[in-house]
Amino acid sequence: MSNLIRNNAIVADEWTRVSPPTLGEEQVRKQAGKVVLFKLTGEESYSAEQIAQTDIPAQGKILLPLAVWLARRHEANNALEQRLEKGELGIIVATHESLEKLVESVGDINRLPIIAIFVERFADGRIFSLGNLLRTRYGYRNELRAIGDVLRDQLFFLKRCGFDSYLIRADRSAQEALSGLQDFQQPYQAAVDIPQPAWRRIPR
Amino acid sequence: MYKYDALDHQIVNERVAQFRDQTRRYLAGELNDDEFRPLRLQNGLYIQRHAPMLRIAIPYGTLSSKQLRKLADIAQSFDKGYGHFSTRQNLQLNWPKLEDVPDILAELATVEMHAIQTSGNCIRNITTDQFAGVAPDEILDPRAMAEIMRQWSTFHPEFALLPRKFKIAVSGTQQDRALVQAHDIGLQFYFDDAGQMAIQVWVGGGLGRTPILGTVIREHLPWQHALTYCEAIIRVYNLHGRRDNAFKARIKILVKALGIDEFRRQVEEEWQHIKDGPNTIDEQELKRVGQYFDVMPYQQLPAHDASFDAAISSNPAFAAWVKRCVHAHKQPGYRAVTLSLKPHGKAPGDATSEQMRVVADLADAYSFAELRVSHEQNLILTDVKLSDLLPLWEKARAAGLATPNIGLLTDIICCPGGDFCSLANAKSIPIAEAIQRQFDNLDYLHDIGDIELNISGCMNACGHHHVGHIGILGVDKDGSEWYQVTIGGKQGNDASIGTVIGPSFSAEEMPGVVQRLIEVYLRERQDEERFIDTVRRIGVDPFKQHVYAKSAEQDTGVAHV
Predict the structure, then answer these.
(1) Do B158 and A191 make contact, defined as CB atoms within 8 angstroms?
(2) ipTM, 2 decimals?
(3) Which CATH architecture group holds A4-17+47-201?
(4) Could you tell me if B429 and B512 lie in one domain?
(5) Minimal Cα distance from B13: which residue of A?
(6) pLDDT tens-place string over residues A59-114
């Protein structure tokens, strides 16, 4: 059973997510005595070794981490570029990564059929700004998906920030999460999905 | 004051339904603690020492008598018959049951109230001057803009989960009373040379663990751009704030790390993209919201009232109250009145349901059925006729609301502290009560004059201790409670952060320590100098010497470093 919501319905997921291998021990970082839960904006996501050893399936539609795309897109006679051309490649951007690098690498952002923003912990609100920027600053029009720690109670905000698909965390029901998209009917402020504030939209 | 329309009602009702379902899922085990935490916090619900604590929003401190009666009823039905007015102009209930909270929110919704974003890592209640609209030094009334900002920030989708809490204060007076320099964003409204409403924008202020006063990021912002400019600031913060360390996650740390010039550059660059965008406020919207804040239907009265003058000269107790609790007003023949929630020996800022009902009645009888909450944790009737002051005083006094100590040493700002709050390192209310008992002589208090004493039970600084002329901070040392003292802090246009005078003290020592600080002031003061002026003139050392010398003599074992 798929856990993917797209356009207010549960649909099958045609995209295969590519993940770099975990090498060695995961390091637990601490700050002020507490485990660091969030990566800093601009921090590296994977080591060169992890990127080099990432197994990329030769066929089918794949979602590739930004770092892997940036490092390996010219490999094997631009094989990845060609898959992008065929509409078989989408990019995963983690909440601490830079959209500028993505935009620079693809030229026209709408060559990408899908961009997935990976949120490691649902409380990381950078995902909202990234969605907003992709839709408003960079003019991205294709599928924008939230993946990772994606839960019902954040869906309304994600929708307002331009997301149109949501891969609900595996241990939660996408069916139940659907109602989260309907928490509020008429928001006050302008955002991506409803681009005018209430005062310009409805008689008050 | 602002009145809800159909949309406002719909949004708070949808919120009640949403939170009811979230609470149900939590109690059914469908949401774990970590998942429920931000959801309940964004409804003002903390899990505290004895019970949950619910913080109810009082937008920019404005309440109607009807709303206050509802708060009284809620405190009685769902709590122990009292509430605590906080330093951010909100009301806190200390003993509600988690499973009752959806019903409390539903009750609040019936009187156009809510608990939305009173906690959590989001944009919090927007605060302002308690005398907005009536203060003689007011340049313009910022409440309409505050209401527009309240609506804009409510469920702002991009800023729902920021690195840390985010507080905005607005002010439109010559003398700042809204602590604009101690907020993440402070908006100081004024009229520019062209006669247009403009904003001086402060950023990166905040108390807490690392107290920093804000910096001006923009001297002149036309009012239409208030929302988009704030969006640019908060977007830069959302993307680049320190999420790796909760102690460094406030915007002030980012501003310091980048420097104001680089931070400003990033904000301005961001703003160029959204400037003039849909969230740009227009005349029509300002007018629509502004109509709710039109001047009250005042009577044309003479500047003096014979009955009032007679009462002042014949009744010293009334005169003492007028001196401390009655404030100047724009409109001739009217005054603003502070009802003290600081009777000696009681928890500062607490009001019983009975007192709330009395205040609601007083507001109905004497002040157009409205009132304000101040960040100093008192209640204010903003529009009282001179001739009504005497009967008002008599009724307020009978309800324990007329202690003539506003602006005096016992008008203590104080957080709930270790008696209630699970964040606290130390108790704060008993310290306030002990100091109030130590200085229970009104003549002596009046002689000491204007002074602000602020107490926080931990470095989160809800009691604003850094900006108290005397600040007291509860600290934990090896599991016991100690108190660090600062002097020289101040709110207002010339705000400053206090200086620590030395090693901390035990709870028992605290009234004596304050006594000794006051002794130095009384010895050193010149002319009409206030405590803060003396500290600024002579510095911290004379105070330090007297406090610690005395302590050593008495061998109370001071050097607890």
Answers:
(1) yes
(2) 0.96
(3) 3-Layer(aba) Sandwich (3.40)
(4) yes
(5) A184
(6) 999 999 999 999 998 888 788 888 999 999 999 999 999 999 999 999 999 999 99
